[in-house]
Request: fold
Amino acid sequence: MKEFELKYGCNPNQKPAKIFMEDGSDLPIEILNGKPGYINFLDAFNSWQLVKELKAATGLPAATSFKHVSPAGAAVGVKLGDRLKKSCFVDDIEGLDDSPLACAYARARGTDRMSSFGDFIALSDECDEVTARIIAREVSDGIIAPGYTSKALEILKGKRKGGYNIVKIDENYVPQERERKQVFGITFEQGRNNFRIDRDLLKNIVTKNKNLTDEAARDMIISLITLKYTQSNSVCFAKDGQAIGVGAGQQSRIHCTRLAGTKADLWHLRQSDKVLALKFADGVGRPEKNNIIDIYLSEDFEDVTAEGNWQKYFSEKPAVFIKEEQKAFLAKVDGVTLGSDAFFPFDDNIERAKRSGVKYVAEPGGSVRDDVVIAAADKYDMVMCFTGMRLFHH
Reply:
């Protein structure tokens, strides 16, 4: 296939639209089902790069949940504990523990379920039946992977009344070293960002505490590769083999950190006893449960807990999870990793990170206030690596 005509571009008024190879060669994809759109393909090609690099860097199957050209979640194939399974709504999936790829997607989708609503999925490996069964019951726009088992393909083709977008990509495809795009009729050209992110990048530990565990190094790699394909400015919190909070596209770095930290806190709070004990009313669907939990954990909790309100959502009146209790729960969180796509200009980012249990930090360094940022990390006995490489993505 030399080119593929799209219904329209980013918006319905942007016509005509198509994808094609500038050198006239065949596209490195097959469209197995559906008719993906312009934004679908932007998500697909960015997300595929992310999971391919995660697999290469960690040796584990990887998955990501993309939305509007940034990852809502990304993870590698590490088994989920019982609490996380319930939090991610996959505790009833048979065979989950036997499929690392399914574990990766369950984690990626469960990172930020609100943002993942209507996601585009990328898998590093052939999609298997277990992974397809998870995807089948989620609201999703499409998927890209290097292959699909016959059973997985059958399951996925049944989504969206048969219109689910399924893309197969040539896993051996290597793009040209130079990439171009146009803005306002002006062509931009640059070398591709082929910068390799692996354990060797983490050798420059600038804090007094230099005890970087293998698990923390893995999570640093996950956070940094995730950031490589996240709209900048961006910050990523990671733990246990997955991103747990992504703050994307903010003009101020502290706003990135606050956004990512809030999402990471919600990921932890979703695994608390009070949230896992919620008794939803019959007929409340999975997307509605996500919204209800989000409100339950917010300052607007009375919208779902007050008398006359709770009966719409729950079969039993839920106990209020007051802010003091939430803070006490989060105060016990530890061992979280934080990655940043550019240096921290002020120590306020470290102070905010500490409140979300951050123990490990990876950032490029290079600020005139590096000494202040390092001192803040030392105050909390954090391990901080300076990578020396900015990871802006636009």
The radius of gyration is 21 Å. The longest strand covers residues 70-76. The chain has three domains: 3-174, 195-269+330-386, 278-320.
